[in-house]
Amino acid sequence: MKTFTFRPIDGEAGGNVGMVTIKDVAREAGVSVASVSRALNGHGGVTADTVERVREVAERLRYVPHMAARSLITRRTHTIGALLPDLYGEFFSELIRGVDLAARARGLHLLVSSSHDGVADAAAAMRAMQGRVDGMLILSPWVDAAFLHANLPPSLPVLLLNSAVHDAGYSVLNIDNFGGAHAMTRHLVGAGHADVAFIAGPAANYDAQQRELGYRAAMAEFAPRTALNIVPGEFTEESGYQAGRALLAQPRRPRAVFAANDMMAVGCLYAFKEAGLRVPEDIALAGFDDIPIARYLTPPLSTVRVRIAELGRDALERLATLLETPDGPAAMETLDCELVVRETCGASSAAASSGGR
Q1: Which of 74, 201, 208, 321 is most buried, with most CB under 10 Å away?
Q2: Are residues 184 and 239 in the same domain?
Q3: Dist CA 40 CA 288 (whole Å)
Q4: Can you say how many angstroms the Cα of residue 199 is from the centroid of all Cα atoms in its chain?
Q5: Which ranges constitute the DSSP H helices of the chain?
């Protein structure tokens, strides 16, 4: 279990940062410690001139409030926890970037941990964060309602990302995995690729499950006479490469391949090029997520766009709302996806207009 802390930095570090105390500010400004606290925290009870003088002295001395001491008073750590299944890859780096930018804008710290080693790892990460965070963002295949009730205090604000949990005590923010996969499969069939194979994601992953269901539903609707062709994957480039080789070893090569995420599509593209196949002339390819590198591949990758950094930002904003209104009702929201038609699917972007759902 790896844990990293991100914190906003206001101004340049250096000098006596961390050594100046509130007593030093009070002495330099000629006021009491209580007046310094009121002036810096905006609690009132001091004149405007005093506020201005205290803030000028604090800035000149580079005074940084002692967060641990403040937390004892406010019972707030000003830190948000984020539990993710992994920290590797462009999807998670973009997600963390979105969360961190939104946290910085609110003056919050971000504590990030992973749970890729399984359910015990997820439970350990949650327990390690308790008392250190004011709320938690959780994206983990190991989490269900019973697990949350067993490992988190009911008073801790929690927002679940891409989760199948349906519990009145937890808010959930999902992306439309089913609709996105359905739309891409429909687009590939509509582009003349009735024989569409699918590279699935991890069996326990909710995103992967929903994307496979979207593929199955679209094939049944738009290519009912075509047998389903699903090969396993693990959301990694290597698993995509191995899936691509497995598809090429089949007696009949599929006309198109839809990978359940872009990282597997990248590995699959390499397998096709290694075999001397041209994409999309010999075989079409599509992915899911629209990670930043997707547009820079040769050829550029057709995919289902998830605005990943915006997903992270929206998640943080929703969790911040839960912090401000802890007694508010839990909500379940689903964000739309969109087709991004580039060169690998062998169809024009105009054809995508009929592929939405």
Answers
A1: 201
A2: yes
A3: 47
A4: 22
A5: 22-29, 33-41, 48-61, 67-74, 90-105, 119-129, 145-151, 177-190, 206-222, 237-248, 262-274, 308-324
pLDDT tens digits along 120-136 = 888 888 888 888 899 99
Question: What would the DSSP string read from start to end of 74-104?
Answer: HS---EEEEEES-S-SHHHHHHHHHHHHHHH
- 154 inside domain: yes
Which residue range(s) make up the domain with 46? 21-60
Is residue 147 located within the same domain as residue 32? no
Confidence at residue 115, expressed as pLDDT on a 0 to 100 scale: 77
| Residue 292 DSSP SS3 | helix
Burial of 195 (0-12, 13-18, 19+ CB in 10 A): middle
Report how many domains make up the chain: 3
Token match 């001395």: residue? 61
**What is the reported pTM?**
0.76
Residues 167-204: pLDDT tens digits?
878 899 999 999 999 999 999 999 999 899 999 999 98
Domain assignment of residue 291, yes or no: yes
Only one residue has tokens 């923010």, namely 173
Tokens (6 digits) for 213: 């269901």
